Each structure stands twice: as C-alpha cells, then as structure tokens.
Amino acid sequence: MIVVGQGRAAEPIAARLKTIGRPVFSAYLQPDELSLQSLRGKRVFAFAGIGDPPKFFRTLRESGIEVVRERSFADHHMFSTAEVNEMAAESEHEALTLVTTEKDWVRLRLMPGEEKSSPEIVPLPVTLVFAEVERLRGLISSSLFEARSRKRRDS
Predict the structure, then answer these.
(1) What is the pTM of this model?
(2) What's the rounded mean pLDDT across residues 32-48?
(3) Which of 67, 95, 99, 101 has the most CB atoms lying inside 10 A of its own CB?
(4) pLDDT tens digits for range 65-100
C-alpha cells in the first residue's frame, strides 16, 4: 500500500496491513519547481477533476501561487467543450491563467474537436516522492527475484 500525503483516511487500512505483514509506504506529491516559478506572480483560475480537488488548490497556494478562482469536478471528469470555453471566458475576463493537474490536462488534450484555438491551460506536473526509497527498492528487487525463481522452477 502506498499512502500519499498527510491525510488520515488510510490509517485503519494501513494499520491492518502492517499487522498481517504487508508493506505500507509513505509518499507525497512534489510539484515541479519550474512550473511553479512560471506561475508565481500570476493570478490563476485553478480547476481539477481528481479525487481531492481542494488538495490541488492547497498545493498551489502553499507553493506561493495566487489562486483567485477554483472549480472542482468529479474524479475522472470528462470535460465538455462548453465547460472549457466557460472557464476560458471567465479567466480571460478576469485576466487569470487557467491551471489544472497534469492528469486533467492530458484528458483535455484528448477531447474530441480539440482545435488550435483552444484556450491555453497550464498543467502542473508533480512527482511521486517516496519517504523510504531503499526499502521500496528492496521490496521490488526481492519480488523480482522470487518471480524469476518461480519461473525457473515452473519451466
């Protein structure tokens, strides 16, 4: 199990897994510093269709980004052209930069009818950083070794 962030929702499950000897790892999402630098000093309209949109908005604010407007969508939301155009008009009217998660940005690029005239939307890339990298590497290595050994025995 990988527990991402500081929330407490996963604690009961993580505790149960630990008692039966299953590995539990901690990790956090680290925003891309170059992307953050390009957004600092700008006023943004942030939107997200992920499991916890307020976490994305907090990440922006905690990174020194001025979030003026925000809009949340359900996880895996399939954006419509009308929604994107509405947010683009609002952001243009208020001189805001549209910012979203990298996950949502990819989905936006896959929208049918995506044209060159689509509004500029800035994605915020993040990297998953593990707290115990060596322990994770050990688990992966031993799992691969066991899988190879089983394959040789079964051959």
Answers:
(1) 0.79
(2) 96
(3) 99
(4) 999 999 999 999 999 989 999 999 999 999 999 999
